[in-house]
Amino acid sequence: MASNVNPTVRRRRLGMELRKLREDKGMTAEQVAERLLVSQSKISRLENGRRSISQRDVRDLCDVYEVEDRRLVDSLMQMAKDSRQQGWWHAFGDIPYSVYIGLETDAASLRTYEPQVVPGLLQTPEYASALIRGALPETAPADIDKRVQVRMRRQLRLSETENNNPEIGPLRLWAVIDEAALRRRVGDAQLMVRQLEHLIEQSEQPHITVQVMPFAMGAHPGVNGQYAILEFPDASDSTVVYIEGVTSDLYLEKANDVQQYSVMYEHLRAQALNVDQTREFISDIIGTYAGKAK
Known about the structure:
Elements: H1 7-25, H2 29-36, H3 40-47, H4 55-64, H5 70-83, H6 98-106, E1 109-114, H7 125-135, H8 141-154, E2 172-178, H9 179-183, H10 189-203, E3 208-213, E4 227-231, E5 240-243, E6 250-252, H11 255-271, H12 275-293
Parallel strand pairs: 1-2, 2-3
Antiparallel strand pairs: 1-4, 4-5, 5-6
Domain HTH cro/C1-type: 18-72
Protein name: Helix-turn-helix domain-containing protein
InterPro entries: Cro/C1-type_HTH, DUF5753, Lambda_DNA-bd_dom_sf
């Protein structure tokens, strides 16, 4: 197998295949759990790709589903083996949002709404460091550095020639950012000038679109908070809505949930400033910060 196998995506694909086998057999997750003497939650986590799956798990499930096609069983066993490989992010130790990184690494497009901060993929190292220090005041300096390194590594997905998934090209990013994220000073004024200039520079790339949602717009479909929609090049991989939490994250994959968030995002894009207006708007804010930096 290729060295850039993504264990997160492999687990998702394997989970979908196993769920399909169960449904074709007409069994519930509870019935399967009873047959294998395991908890129902284990079966659910295996099927949604949130839990590492062993080749023994696959073998046992295929026995329960009476799968006779040896080639299919071997293929699923290989997927289980690949899913236990480590992604590049594991080299940095325990990363709390490693599932998300795995999805982002293999995604073809990402639509995100950020109400409070500049999106991580568009942050400068200095902004990221100051942001993490402020958000997690009890974090050790070494852990802050590690988080910044991971964030910068993630940004390779935006590069035309240096992204870490050359088979699918650079990530198509569409970011709607609330005005609050631009007005909120992270670090000093000079740092904010550099961050907002970087934001404009990134927005000039053909595969990156940035729009600002100004305060003047009032109430809008994003007032409930941050979320991201990830889409994948392989049709077998379902679109995922990601909602970041303090102690745990939420991943939505049901068609109805994805549809609601997608419609909400279309309203956000329609109500936000267009690309040219956004650059002018950010430039004006840069002028304000530049005056304070003198």
